[in-house]
Amino acid sequence: MKRNLLLVLALSGILGFGQTGADCNYSVSSEQTSNGENITTGGNFDYSAASDFDVALGKILTAKQLTFNVMKSASAVSYVNVYILKENQGLPGDAIQTFTNLVPTSQVLAYNSTVEDVDVYKISVDFPASFDLPKGKYYIQLKAALADGTSVFWEINKETTRKLGRFDFTKFDNDPWFGGFSYYDHVFELIGNCNDTSEEQPTGTLFTAGNSGDSHEGGVHMVWTSLADDFVVPDGQKFTFTKFKISTLQLGNIKNATINIRKSENDLPGEILHTFENVGPTTENFYGYHPVPGFPLDVVAADVEFDWNQPVDLLPGRYFIEIISAPFPFTDYQRWEVTPNSGDSLDSVASFDGGETWESNPGYNYVFEVSGFTNPYLAVADADKNNFSFYPNPVKDELNFVSKNEASRITIYNVAGQMVKDSEIKNNRVDVSDLQSGNYIGKVILKNGSTQTIKVIKK
């Protein structure tokens, strides 16, 4: 039971990321809903709420200040407790930064609400000391107390606003975090500085694959069940897989999921190549309530997106993406949405024995999207009479050659056919660090007078 967590009916919100030079912020903008969630502390009961944000790969955030909107009476906020939590398997986890009894540096009227005797105020607090947050998902947990002891509510946004981040969480006293049934975000702005790290980010041509659909008419039961569908990496391309999005129908939500990438064997999911266990969604978007056949209540259509700690590289071929979802408590309905098979892919499948056997859903695919980047893929070895090969490819600094007949010279051309390098090969090595990133053709002369033509990808 939520115990008066909301001031009025629950709505939803938008998380944005802003950056100008070294200054950056993570924010959810107000939509003046005149609605909020109870975060009152200091009385007989203790209420709080948590809103998430993500620090991207290649960035580190130095946090300095927090602003947030509250609905309250004319009484001032006397103090605020702020907790920065690390995400843990789809839920707010342990506190990595704790700031209690913070006195606001400002309390400014944001707008007059439509609720009697309360208005919305923007509250600002400075952290006593700045702190660094590397890549990952985090939650801001808030508690606040008013001088007159009345209740204070953290402003929330609309359901229909597209956003980044998870739908938010609430907490009463020492109860577990409650989530999965409200489709909103809290209004806040986390302010600081962002700096680049040395983490290498994937590059290439943007690539997506999967099945689209927006009828929201039905799906396949997915709680603790293995569901899988196929996608194809094109010939001649290496796919760097970074994100996976599914369309769901639900009353409740996915707490976390185990996601497997499998080989295709006899047009069914085969050997597991990569596993991501108990991954919490990165992003959730609300797409309204819809009737479904055979269920007495309208259900929520929501897109749920996952990403990985490290990108996964897949070579040309067919693969299956499998998901096994763990729901929030009290989830009544959870389906992976389906769409009629267009004939371009295999039918979707389900397994009720952990992937030992698979049953087809004839004529239907799941609605999903895999996304990332593609780069030309070339086999390194060219088995011929010279037993010639070269590595690595792609290459960053130095290209190495292996050949029955020693390589003596290389001429390299760009895609426009212009010669960009002509160099002697010494000890079967040549320095290519001076080349710009891109694709090249190389003509290698061997000491027996024969030549080899190679395609080189420069990082």
What would the keywords be for this entry?
35 strands; disordered N terminus; Jelly Rolls; 459 residues; eight-stranded antiparallel beta sheet; mainly beta; 3 domains; single chain
Tell me what the structure shows.
Keywords: Signal. Residues 391-455 form the Secretion system C-terminal sorting domain. By secondary structure, the chain is mainly β. The protein folds into three domains: 15-196, no CATH class; 205-376, Jelly Rolls (Sandwich), CATH 2.60.120; 381-458, Immunoglobulin-like (Sandwich). 0% of the residues lie in helices and 59% in strands. It contains no helices and 35 strands. The chain has strands at 15-20, 23-28, 36-38, 47-55, 59-72, 77-88, 91-102, 106-111, 119-133, 136-146, 153-155, 169-172, 188-196, 205-211, 219-221, 226-233, 237-251, 254-265, 268-279, 283-290, 299-314, 317-327, 333-340, 349-351, 359-360, 364-366, 368-376, 381-382, 388-391, 398-402, 407-414, 419-424, 429-431, 438-446, 451-458. Strands 1, 2, 3, 5, 8, 9, 11 and 13 form an eight-stranded antiparallel beta sheet that branches. Strands 14, 15, 17, 20, 21, 23, 26 and 27 form an eight-stranded antiparallel beta sheet that branches. The protein has a six-stranded antiparallel beta sheet with strand order 19-18-22-16-24-25, with no helix packed on it. Residues 1-21 have low confidence and may be disordered.
